[in-house]
Amino acid sequence: MAVLRYLxxxxxATRPGTGNPLGAVLDADxxxxxQMQALAAWLNLSExxxxxxxxxxxxDYHIRIFTPTQELAFAGHPSVxxxxxxxxxGLASPRDGALLQQCAAGLLPVRASGxxxxxxxxxxxxxxxxxxxxxxxAPAALLSQAAHGHRPELWDNGARWWLLPLRDAAAVRGxxxxxxxxxxxxxxxxxxxxxxxxxxxxxxHARVVRAxxxxxAASVPEDPVTGSANALIGAWLRQRDALxxxxxxxxxxxxxxxxxxxxxxxxxxxxxVVWIGGQVQPVIDGQVRWP
Length: 291
Description:
The chain has 291 residues and is of the alpha+beta class. The chain has an eight-stranded mixed β-barrel with strand order 1-2-3-4-6-7-8-17. The relative contact order is 0.19.
């Protein structure tokens, strides 16, 4: 029986109890993929990451990402949380603040900055691309809330999200979707879910985001804080030359409606690479025993 160190973290969180929960299993090389999947199902968090010895040249650490039902090539909050754990637990040492994460999506650059007790992580998202999938079957209730002149667009960066700006922040905050309709549309278009957003001039953020994924039986219908969707929204904004803030940087608020009020820092650099990041809060530090 393997006895492994286990962390439970809140990612994109300024304090415990906010952001998006993540399980992290350290030194998981004794486990095979089936064991990892079974443990992720037992933990029943939206995602659990497993740390392995890096095998790619240049990689500082290596993770596999599992939901309770499947392995993912990339996901935002697991990657940000894993980078925090790698540095904090001494699994990797940044070189001038830089690391390389190995995952199924490839080698992803990471930046780590700030003091140890307030470490700030930024991670480069895989390249975003807009897919040609038509939005003809989009639920009418969703379209009725859209910002003028906009239709849903399906974007992919390892996860596939329908993106749609709503008419204003109040529409995003108050949006009560038909989950069955979103589920059926997501399944029909092979999408992770639907992310809606709008500008919002808050004291600590410039944009509000909500993400719905009722097609994924492993997730709650509304995801608390979603790194992959926020990265795609950054790419969507760049395509339209509509990035708020200075130098392509802004903070998004997500999760308030489900009691998890998170903050995602988004930066689009001069090369068009979208960086997502924020703070991570440790909640549990213990052991798991798994056959």
